[in-house]
Amino acid sequence: VGRLWNQDFIFMAKESFMSKPNNPDELILIDRQFSWRTAWKVCRWWFIAFIISMLCDVLFANEKKQWILEWRVTIVAVEFLALLFFMRDVARWIRGTDELQRRITLAALLFAVSASFFFFLFWLRLEREGFLNAIFGAPIWNHTRGISSVAHACALLSTFYGIGYLIFKRRYK
Amino acid sequence: MKNKLRELRAAKDWSQSDLADKLDVSRQTINAIETGKYDPSLPLAFKIARLFKQKIEDIFEAD
């Protein structure tokens, strides 16, 4: 009887503490399962890096040139420190997904990194050849300095991650 | 790889969500295994075999 009670107790304890695997659908903005709570938990440092970069590198890019060197270096350090924390949170979150979801998520991440790198190179070449200035006009691209900021990289990565995730998820549907 | 997961689950009268909870995986993973779109890892295959008290080769069969 004691052994049976122990088994029941272990089973109940396991059931009550057992948590469901992390669901990557909760991070896809257009999915109906999207959760702001999960997005904040995983991507809060991404949001912080994005906002700092958006303010300092894009909106106040010209004003920033007047700031002292120490201040500008601190901003860059904060941006990249936030990205490091974001990578740590993503790694922890991926560890909590189940094996199929992990496979899909890692494939989508690889796709996002490669596609962003390809897009970045392509954009840089077009910019260097003067194509973008001819199409959009010089002031815009001189002001934002192309896609060289953390904010642009974050936006590109998350867009390609979403596309990649939806593509790879379809394979197992 | 073919498998008998759907039949085994139906025999126990479990839904995909019930089985997913017992195996600590998502319902999508159970669905992908049942439809043959995803082959589970060895640890998960062992877990499934242990849950249904069968040998792995009795549940999973190579094409």
Short note summarizing the structure:
The complex is a heterodimer of chains A (173) and B (63). Chain A has 173 residues and is mainly α. Helix content of chain A is 79%, strand content 0%.
Write a structural description:
The complex is a heterodimer of chains A (173) and B (63). With 173 residues, chain A is mainly α. Chain A has helices at residues 2-17, 36-59, 61-64, 69-95, 99-128, 131-136, 138-144, 150-171. Chain B has 63 residues and is mainly alpha-helical. Chain B has helices spanning 5-12, 16-23, 27-34, 42-51, 56-59, and strands at 2-3, 60-61. The longest helix of chain B has 10 residues, at 42-51. At the A-B interface, α5 of A face α3 of B.
Seen as an oligomer or otherwise, the chain set is heterodimer
Q: Kindly provide the radius of gyration of chain A, computed on alpha-carbon positions and rounded to a whole number of angstroms.
A: 22 Å
Shape of chain B from CA axes? globular
Extract low-pLDDT stretches of chain B: none
Continuous helix count of chain A: 8
Q: Please give the alpha-carbon distance between the first and last residues of chain B.
A: 5 Å
Number of strands of chain A: 0
What brief labels describe this structure?
heterodimer, A: 173 residues, mainly alpha, globular, B: 63 residues, two-stranded antiparallel sheet, 2 strands, 60% helix, 6% strand
Spell out the blueprint of helices and strands:
The complex is a heterodimer of chains A (173) and B (63).
Chain A: H1 2-17, H2 36-59, H3 61-64, H4 69-95, H5 99-128, H6 131-136, H7 138-144, H8 150-171
Chain B: E1 2-3, H1 5-12, H2 16-23, H3 27-34, H4 42-51, H5 56-59, E2 60-61
Antiparallel strand pairs in B: 1-2
Helix pairs in contact in B: 2-3
